[in-house]
Amino acid sequence: MTAPDSLTDPESLRTRALDALTTARERTALLTSCVEDPELTAQHSPLMSPLVWDLAHIGNQEELWLLREVAGREAMRPEIDGLYDAFEHPRAERPSLPLLPPAEARQYAAEVRGRALDILESAAFQGTRLTEAGFAFGMIAQHEQQHDETMLITHQLRKGPAALTAPDPAPAPLFTGPAEVLVPEGPFVMGTSTEPWALDNERPAHRRTVPAFFIDTTPVTNAAYQAFIEDGGYGDRRWWTPEGWDHIRAHDIEAPLFWRREGGQWLRRRFGVTEVVPPDEPVLHVCWYEADAYARWAGRRLPSEAEWEKAARHDPAADRSTRYPWGDADPTPEHANLGQRHLRPAPAGSYPAGESPLGVRQLIGDVWEWTSSDLLPYPGFVAFPYREYSQVFFGPEYKVLRGGSFAVDPVACRGTFRNWDYPIRRQIFSGFRTARDAAPGSS
């Protein structure tokens, strides 16, 4: 993937799209070949689909958009469209549907991919908004990678021995930099109108003015979060919203998901392996209510979505917004923990090459970061290419997460990328950092 201003050459676009599609399919194959068929067809949590549903859904979406919409081909399997419509059947109901069995799902997805690559080979990347700059191919690559992340969540939820392995991130020296960074007051450009594969809710670019604020230099760590637990944070109503308090009491929540206390220490289960909770990693698998309560306990708050993006993209010296905290260059392993290279966050303070101009680290990768904001459209928002991608989710029911996690591929992670979920969700790879107001006129 290259910077947007160089995406004009058809052959470069073709290569970019091919690489993105290939990377996504290799990851899909890994996630669906590391367990036996009964594990693919089982539902490991009512919150998640059977893995075999995701596999065929990936193929069905690719057929709908690349074969039918872009190329005008006749439907290959019209009778299965309803089975793999995410809005027609809730996840809890999907195991009861007449889903394609694993071998047939693989064959279908592979046949769709073969035809899609034939279309890509002769694509002109112009003519309509869907085809311009290869948007449809980028949209499909992002869709597959988002479902790959969903399948990785399912692997974390499944019981039994580990099915996936990956090397750990490189050890990092204990971070000794400043605990927080001042982001000066003033306007910045939020969102994008130029990123060719940006999705509709990231558009259009618009100016926002944000008062001065301080933001954590790194995400909140397990050690810091344990201090909240040990101080009785889960039993003190002062720190919780009424809805959050009701939720944790109703579900007996006393620690992040997958944690348990044993022998005077905290343990966690991570992809089939039980281990001591590492103190220097960003805390993971907390819901919005937990993140908000911790921030209140610490005398701070969650950053708004606009504050997060300003900290991640605004370059004060150049007075412009960049694609990523480090600039416009595509992510490399030196910048961020992305792409399922590892199966855990890197220690807080890692990736100095990926810090923002103001010195904020790990804004991209490692853990999705809860913000205080509801998911709302930007001024001038237009749903494209279908309203069910994000428009139907706008409103106070969903909270925005930013930055991506170790489970996110770079094609589906930008400084403008917006994720969202219910404030009760904990199975996702979610963490957070905190913020606080600064005095007016701070600079």
TrEMBL record:
Keywords: Iron, Metal-binding, Monooxygenase, Oxidoreductase. Residues 20-151 form the DinB-like domain. Its cofactor is Fe(2+). The keyword Iron applies. Residues 309-322 have a biased composition (Basic and acidic residues). Transmembrane segments: none annotated. Fe cation binds at residues 57, 143, 147. Gamma-L-glutamyl-L-cysteine binds at residues 91-94, 421, 425. Residues 177-436 form the Sulfatase-modifying factor enzyme-like domain. It catalyses: gamma-L-glutamyl-L-cysteine + hercynine + O2 = gamma-L-glutamyl-hercynylcysteine S-oxide + H2O. Pathway: Amino-acid biosynthesis; ergothioneine biosynthesis. Catalyzes the oxidative sulfurization of hercynine (N-alpha,N-alpha,N-alpha-trimethyl-L-histidine) into hercynyl-gamma-L-glutamyl-L-cysteine sulfoxide, a step in the biosynthesis pathway of ergothioneine. Belongs to the EgtB family. This is Hercynine oxygenase. It comes from Streptomyces sp. R35.
